[in-house]
Amino acid sequence: MTGHDHDPSPGFPPVGELVPHEAPMILVDELVEWTPSAALVRARVRVGGPFVRAGRLPATILLEYMAQAIAVAEGMGARASGRAGGGSEAGVLLGTRELELEVEEVAVGETLDIAIEQKFADMKLASYACEVRSGARRLAAATVNVMVSGAVEVSA
Questions:
Q1: Residue 156 pLDDT > 50, yes or no?
Q2: pLDDT per residue over 67-105, tens digit each?
């Protein structure tokens, strides 16, 4: 059983319904918290994951975990607003600024909490502040810029 097959947090659909990926490329497991401008997504680093080698995940791959957390939040936003597609809309990672990697790698078995907060959205472009933690330990942080089908401006 893969992580995204288990029961989602109450009130949220499985992440497989929110992102345009299929196994084994779905790296995140569940949407834990969501508002239109922020989300908390959880993932467990698993043996056999597409980027895991010798029981370790290179820290650079945490950027993909951030991008997938954004996709989950955007998919939930599409579903909540009734937009066409109802989730799983395609998006593109445009780039990142200020990527901070606090570790070189992450061990299999670690649980990752990926917090994202939308800082800007205009038409189809959006920017998110992202942070990945394992327990109390910060593993990575970045500002991630994406193009999404349904980005809407966040009201102040």
A1: no
A2: 999 999 989 988 888 765 556 566 888 999 889 999 999
Where do we find the tokens 């901070």?
A: 100
**Ordered DSSP codes for 8-45:** PSTT---GGGTSS--TTS----EEEEEETTEEEEEEE-
Distance CA 33, CA 135 (A): 16
Average pLDDT, stretch 35-47?
A: 96
| CB atoms closer than 10 angstroms to residue 43 | 24
User: SS3 for 63-112, per residue?
Assistant: HHHHHHHHHHHHHHHHHHHCCCCCCCCCEEEEEEEEEEECCCEEECCCEE
Nearest to 41 by CA among 84, 83, 9: 9
**Amino acid identity for residue 10 in this structure:** P
pLDDT at 6: 47
Q: Give the separation between CA 65 and CA 128, rounded to whole angstroms.
A: 13
